[in-house]
Design goal:
With 366 residues, this protein is an alpha/beta fold. Helices cover 42% and strands 12% of the residues. It folds into 2 domains: 276 residues, NADP-dependent oxidoreductase domain (TIM Barrel, Alpha-Beta Barrel); 65 residues. An 8-stranded parallel β-sheet has the order 3-10-9-8-7-6-5-4. Strands 1-2 form a two-stranded antiparallel sheet. The two termini are 40 Å apart. The protein binds iron/sulfur cluster (2 copies).
Length: 366
């Protein structure tokens, strides 16, 4: 991108229209009493590794968000250099936003070390909300017990390193059980028109307990393409913050335009939207990268993406030649998979990566 293009985009992003001001409306984030914008900036694409972008673009995104009045940025210790880039971009502007980060560690000592490192990387003296990252059902007991990570979260809060404790998980049962303990001020979960489990019990329970709600994967990791309707969907629910992961300024601006609507989906619109996404099923990749790294250096989200666009969309015969050539040239890459199964274990949705690799290989080995 040239300097002129970047400048024009920055101008666009620093001049929100009246129509777009809707997203800057602040909501109370449950018992934290923090007043946050309904739209927050998601931290996965703010990593040069996971988002495939540059530090310069990441800084532009952070500044564009702040210039728009967006005051919530979420990240994690496991999003590679995301915390580092955010810390760098926020120099001189730390007071303008609420930072939420996460630790994927599970023991007291490991979580404490992680929090100290997060403070270092984010170049701040405090983290507003620090969250347990993606807790699984089998980890609950040890995490909450003696020597478990929860002890570190309490200690960090008591010492002022963090202000509030949040929970994130892909398992509704874990979140329902744990927010009842009163230990957590916020809860973050995947929620969109395809992943609707939270609407039954979790969302009403969080509201009744005054636990702040943060939605991740509003577009199901990019699988949902109808952004306007996808964002409108959230106006039908009592959720506080919706995280928006964007990799560049045009995407940021486009999402802002789509988000800047406060109308609800009518029952007819909701039904039509459900039909529109029905073909996705449940087994699609959310590009969260929890399955990474692969010991044999395969980029698993790309492989699954390839599966969707090659195996599902075309037969070998009717595939456009450029796609066929691309698939064939990737055979060596696919052959590197030794079917160790580690990615399937780590994936919160247990996507059948090995079978998808086999189907791709079968298709392109002709
Ligand atoms: S099963 Fe294949 S793709 Fe998955 S981690 Fe193992 S080698 Fe990598
Ligand atoms: S395969 Fe699973 S863990 Fe990996 S990016 Fe896709 S949804 Fe995430």
């Amino acid at each position: 991108m040239s300097f002129c293009q970047a400048h024009v985009l920055m101008e666009m992003c620093t001049s929100p229209s009246a129509h777009e001001r809707h997203i800057m409306k602040k909501v109370r984030l449950g018992r934290t009493n923090l007043h946050v914008t309904r739209w927050g900036l998601g931290g996965i694409p703010l990593s040069t590794v996971m988002g495939g972008t540059t530090e310069e673009v990441i800084a532009q995104l952070v500044h564009a968000a702040l210039d728009y009045g967006i005051n919530f940025i979420d990240t994690s210790r496991v999003y590679m250099d995301s915390e580092t880039n955010i810390g760098q971009a926020l120099k001189g502007r730390r007071h303008e936003c609420i930072i939420a980060s996460k630790s994927y560690k599970r023991t007291r000592d490991d979580v404490l070390a992680d929090i100290e490192e997060s403070l270092n990387q984010l170049q701040t003296d405090w983290i507003d909300i620090h969250q347990v990252h993606a807790l699984y059902p089998h980890e609950v007991q040890s995490f909450m017990g003696k020597g478990g990570g929860m002890e570190a979260f309490r200690k960090a809060r008591d010492e002022g390193m963090i202000k509030f404790i949040g929970l994130t998980s892909h398992h509704v049962s874990v979140m329902v059980e744990l927010i009842k303990t009163g230990e957590f001020d916020t809860v973050m979960f995947p929620f969109n028109v395809i992943e609707r489990e939270p609407e039954q019990e979790l969302i009403p329970l969080a509201a009744s307990l005054d636990v702040g709600t943060i939605v991740m994967k509003p577009l199901a990791g990019g699988a949902i393409r109808n952004i306007k309707t996808a964002f409108k969907f959230f106006n039908n629910y009592q959720v506080d913050v919706i995280l928006n992961g964007v990799s560049n300024l045009p995407e940021f601006h486009e999402n802002i335009r789509c988000a800047a609507r406060d109308a609800h989906l009518t029952p007819e619109e909701l039904r039509a939207f459900e039909q529109e996404v029905a073909c996705l099923g449940k087994e699609f990749c959310r590009r969260c990268s929890y399955c990474m790294p692969c010991p044999n250096d395969l980029h698993i989200p790309d492989m699954i993406h390839l599966f969707w666009h090659m195996v599902k969309d075309y037969s070998y015969e009717n595939m456009p030649p450029e796609k066929r050539n691309m698939g064939e040239s990737l055979m060596i890459w696919l052959q590197a998979c030794e079917e160790c199964g580690k990615c399937e274990e780590k994936c919160p949705y247990h996507l059948p990566t090995i079978n998808r690799k086999k189907e791709l290989m079968e298709k392109f080995s002709r």
